[in-house]
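Dear Dr. V.,

Thank you for agreeing to look over these. As mentioned in my earlier message, I'm a first-year student in the group and I'm still getting used to reading structure tokens, so any feedback on how I've presented them would be very welcome. I ran two proteins. I've put each sequence directly above its structure. The first is here:
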Amino acid sequence: MPPTPADDTAPKAPASRGSLRATEPPREPLGIAGGQLLGWTAVGIINLAVIVVRAFHTEVPLGIRWIQGLYDLGHHLGLGVVSYALISAWKVLGPRRRCWAWFGLTCAAELVSTLLLPEDLDGLALRLEALTTAAPWLALLVALAGSTVPLAIAFGQVLDRDRWRWLAIIIAVSAQVLNHLLLLGDYPGIHFLTAWCAAGLIGAAVSGLVRPSRRRGRSRTLAFLAVAVAAGAAYLLPPSQSVWRELFRNSGSVVTPFLARLYPAGTGAFSYLSSRSPWFLPRDHLAEVPPTGAYSPPKQPLVLLLFVDALRADLVEDEKHRAALPELHALADDALLFTQTRAPATSTITSFISIFTGKYYSSLYFTNPDGKGYFPYEDATPRLAQLLNAADVRTINMPALWGLGEYYGVGVGFDEELRPGRDYERANNVATAIIKRLEEGVDGSTLLYTHFVDPHAPYNLAGKSGTPYERYVREVRMVDLAIGRIRRYLATSGLDERTILIVSGDHGESFREHGVRYHANTAYEEVVRVPLIIQAPNIPPRRVGAPVSLMDLSPTILDLFDLPTPGYSMGESLAPYLAGGERELERPIVVDASKRIRAMVFPSGIKVIENINQHTVEIYDLSQDPGEKRNLIDELGVEGQDYVGAMRSFFDAHQLRRTGYVPPTRAF
């Protein structure tokens, strides 16, 4: 008798393969929305790993690094949440055909590229403008950059196979790691698009992976909400200033530069540190400052004002460079060397216009009438050459860099503008042109000014072998040799008996001391400190450690010609040092960079740096921390706010006030 259904001991027929599948929870692909959420999460995890690894190679406390990493991860989670929500909404509300989805993605990518990239391409635009009409080429570049996002996602879908997904992940991880290593400290639009491509590539490549069925939808919803809350906290709760600044040091933290525009800038109180100083009050109404008369120059003095582009202070002060730069070191041995000199800005144009006018960048009027960049075309402040001309002092400008000529509003007022050759002319040719002009005769009181531009990135003029720093030093050597030629001519011609030779740098140069290269993008000491050498008859050689500024040069030169300094000038004459004495200098040491970065060094050694666009503030004690490794902003409390307030009150007192005018952010 066959067993009955109630008989548990009866043998059971094997279940069919179809019935087994019916008992398992159905599974479905992760989908493009889930893939993009996972892709942005992966980019955030890559960043977290890079940040933690870097923590072992820096002096930043590990706790700050972890908080920085968590904030960065939260920012990228937020991008993933937004991507998930938009894609999900499109699936419900948008057209069904795939071509429309690709069209919508392409439009979104092109819109983001159009909004973010133009500022990154300002420098390229100026170079193109010199050759052709830049606008169509820039539009093409922006369009091509925007197309990389849909192309990356399309490539990821091609690799959405079990055997090929790892290739997509390797490519994306490599791209995001390179995002931390290339174009440091700038180009936020390019960094963002690179991260988007990496996230899109990963997201598309894993979109075919299966995930639990919709029966677990409640768990997935709760997980999504938890991720959204964590991301929202990272966006809505501003971190401490120390963490915020570290986020900006990390070029792979692609959200931070744009999030800064949403956070309000601090105001700071008016500080007791500045309330007693007339230098923290408007000065346009002040009378001229008479010459000190401390130093008696030779009859009919010839002032040679020679600047070297990107000349760091350590190249002249550190003995290890003597063999490579013998002429500069020999000059320093025979002259007055100021070892605590700082430039007023961190790029060439802004540094020189500040030196020539006695006013800082935010006190001057920069315009961009022809689309070639912001220059002081229309600023009416008298330049040094104009003040000298009014007193019958002959002035000669030999601009190896044409941007320092009269056309751009910098070298205004010179009696002669003699271009020594092409733009960015080499130092040897500039020296030849200077010697030739001196041979023609320089009767009477004269100022001759030039700027050697050889030591400039990519540092390939003296060979491409070696590290960037080694190549940079070799380019400085090209100028070193040119200065040696000029000095030898002065000696053999007898002109040295009436020559006051001034050699300095317009700014320094950075070699990743703080994670970035070149100049203009920071206000740390490697970019701000420059050598200042003054050689003149009857001046005993010595080193002066008093903090001085290149803003003191114009008052000093005016003093040498027995002329007064305008009352608005933010510098003081160094002539008493030339006479072998000392002087209690009262004006503050200030940096006002056109990237909207400003700094102030206080007599106590405290240095405050503020990035207006990023809304970051840093405080360093240079007496204890000359390398600016330990940011004290979160440690000093009220005292720190006093210093910050003092600097802000200074800039508030001296900012140009003109209806509708805001000091622009220059691309270089």
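The second protein is here, in the same arrangement:
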Amino acid sequence: MRARLHTFFRRPASLLGVAAFLTALLVQSGELGSSDTMHRLQATHSFWTSKPAVPPEDYPDFGLIGRHGRIYGWYGMGQSLLMLPPDIAGTYLERLPVFADYEGSDPSVRDMVVSVTTNSLVCVLAILMCFHFLRLLEFNARQAMAGALGLLFGTTFLHYTQNMMENNLIMLLTLTGFRFQYEWLRIGRQRSLFYGSLALGANLLTRLTTALDLVAAGLFLLMVLVMEKAGWKEIQARLRAYLKIAAPCYAFFFAIDRAYQYYRFGSVLNTYLSIFGEQQKLLDPTLPANFPWSTPWRAGLLGPLITPEKSIFLFDPLIVLSLLLAVVLWKRLRPEMRAWLTVTVLLVAAYIIFYARYVVWSGDFAWGDRYVSTAVELLAMMSVPLLLRHRQQLRPLWRRAGTVLVVVSVCLQLASLAFWYPLEIYQMKTLGHPTFVIGLRFENIAAGALGKVQAWGLRNSWTWDDPWQRLRSTTPYFLPFLLAKNPDVPRWLAHTLAIAWFGLLAVLLVMLAAIRRKAVAAET
């Protein structure tokens, strides 16, 4: 047994998996993270119980009238399917007599089971997939481990590990698709292409706009072949082999999505957005004729780039490092890296353009622009591995600037976890626009630590008048700290959970130190 454990912890992937698992556990709040996820879980519950997909009292704020006059949610079924097993387990678990006194409290036992298990699973798998993909791109073990940790701690992936929107699931499936399809390109294993195509196809059930990711994956493979100067006949042969396996996989999941659309709304030729626009204009005739595609182009295109409230460069600074390294090192980069950087930049641009005219182009209640963040993370995750691979070829100034950007990114992502993510969004209702959200978050952390929330004018009626919102806005947004202020939770249990949390934090720090030693050893 000891030998097996020793062998397990000698593997870089094992160390990364444990570190990702510990991180996911530590950052959990026990809540689902957003009303969007709550509605998706309600759909999950309707799959196996008699509960409605949308409670009648939620309409018209949420939901669309579909077939037979029933109200359905407008989201895809991908995340709802993922939450099905923990939803079943959590539902039966919270019925146990031991939780009788806790019934009706928030977060519920079911929510805690769903969020902790789902977030942890997705986090671990995505970080492992990132590591293996980087190794496939011929980064050494040290560079690949650093890249995986950069994704985990240096991008908005960390925030969405705490707040369970669709982003990390999309990231996992997209990374899996890229990894296995690229493996097929290199070694010709058809099974790898099949696995990658299944992952990318499954993304269509999560968010239909991930069709852009499918296109990006195919374009990445094509660009690698072109940049490696493959012959036209080889490219044609590869294309035929690719479509023979990938096209049926994509068609299969697209058909499932269309069947789900027909089940809810009686049509296979539209999306929920057209139905949403029609029904909203019936409820409010003053809405513009092109609603929900009514945002001016200028606002939708520049918003994700330059606004202090949603700029991708502020919420994911590692994207700046990736772009700088691409410019400085372009002639020295390998063909696959040139292809990756080109494709991911195009993918970011495609998402920005697609959502530019959408009425909530910014993702509304979210940390940063959640519609674009997954594509941004794909571009940003290459920054740390490239910085390490080409460190000796960079001037000292560039190396120091890169290190500073990495440190700033990690500090920013850790700060995003400190409080309930909509805190600054509610404060902006009082403070007005534009607001530098990142700066406001650090101001909130300082005010909370020094007891200066009211003195600094950060107390507002939007979060202060509701006791539970006030709790989430003034308490570190981690499960043990939230439960410690819940009167329904016994004090001994709250204290035990807090001790366990600090214990897990200590273990994580030890694990990160072990990863660093492993990385240094791998380098030498």
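From my reading of the second output: DSSP finds 26 helices and two strands in the chain. Strands lie at 64-65, 71-72. Does that match how you would interpret it?

Kind regards,
E.
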